[in-house]
Amino acid sequence: MAVFTKLNDNDFTSILRLYDIGELVSFEGISEGVENTNYKLTTSKNTYILTIYEKRVRAEDLPFFMSLMVELNRVSFPCPEPIVDKNGVIINKINDKNFTIVSFLNGKWPKAIGNDEVIEAGKILAQLHKASRNFDLARENNMGSLFWLDTYSKVKDQAEEHFKDLKPAIEKGFELIKKWPRQLPSGVIHGDFFPDNVLFNGNKISGVIDFYMACNDSFAYEIAIVLNAWCFEKNYEFNITKAKLFLSSYNDIRPLDKAELEFLPVLCVGASLRFLSTRLYDFFNRKKDALVNVKDPREYIEKLKFHLQIKSHFEYGL
Asked: pTM of the predicted model, to two decimals?
């Protein structure tokens, strides 16, 4: 989440005239993340999240994202619920940009990831994957390997000059993912299942947010994303205990098959390249006037280097 498009009281008053969700009480920009503009919006009736979609979110993809959250709410999966306006419309425009309003979920994302958090993450992710296999929804992953390579190529010279150990690791990574598996169990994945998109009340998950990277892809690829995002320490060391707990809790709900396990090391390399490429691009293309936190690419350079040494899924704690 971030604030690229700045709104004032008059803007919010005009927006709320479209809805039956109360009068404006307050609003607050949310600085975390790098993709869209987000505001916490409080009205006389309730609290909501207003999202304005910036460059990376295509207008044609928004109906998919909204339909996915509607379907997840229908099966009682904890996620925001899209709010319809007085005309039954979910997606509207302000300043020639699309925006939506969704329900606000109580809870906080965990600043420290412990064993309890990874166990809960495994359970909720498996529930999401089991549910999504039954959804009649489809969106191609437009942030696959070609996107990673194209994004990296735009900042390649700067990145290799700034991060001296980057070149050999990233070249080896792109070579390895030529072995990318194509026939693994799949369905709709979240696509950005990081700790800051999972809310907790106490040690239990209260909701999953930010579905704007959701797409159809293999479930094991999302598991690789989570191993990167949840199972490394701040010094970039891999925590095999957390990985084992996460994988075990996931496997209890949706058992992993032989092929998913076999290809897990390659998938983890790909998941590292996915977020390394966009972090490098954002690092070298920061907007000076945007309220946004740009994440350090170094984290994913180190994670990529770790996965390049892995020979078997057993090294992840299985």
From this structure: 0.91
